[in-house]
Amino acid sequence: MAYSLLHGDIGAALRYNALGVVAVALLLWAYGAWVYGRLVGRELISWQHHRWAAAVALVLVVVWFVVRNLPFPPFTALYV
Questions:
Q1: Which residues of 66-75 are buried (b: 16+ CB within 10 A; e: fewer)?
Q2: End-to-end CA distance of the chain, in Å?
Q3: pTM, whole model, 2 decimals?
Q4: pLDDT tens digits, 28-49
Q5: Of 16, 21, 25, 75, which one's alpha carbon is 20 to 30 angstroms from that of 6?
Q6: How many other β-carbons are positioned within 10 Å of the β-carbon of residue 8?
Q7: Rounded to an integer, what distance in angstroms lies between the CA atom of residue 21 and that of residue 8?
Q8: How far apart are the C-alpha atoms of 71 and 38, rounded to whole Å?
Q9: How far apart are CA 42 and CA 36, in angstroms?
């Protein structure tokens, strides 16, 4: 996924790991909000400041891990 993203192939990156692409986008958003907050001199509230953010991220990763490894269709299409 990282190789595909670095070479600009978003489709292949999504094929390798869709949740990873979403995670990278959210991390870039959080970093951008932090940088902007530092430039203007005040903290911006972004998605990671909500108290449910860590729990939602953990649940999504666990569900993605399980769904991606199910051995029957349509989940076999998620194998790379």
A1: eeeeeeeeee
A2: 11
A3: 0.79
A4: 999 999 999 999 998 888 888 8
A5: 75
A6: 8
A7: 12
A8: 47
A9: 9
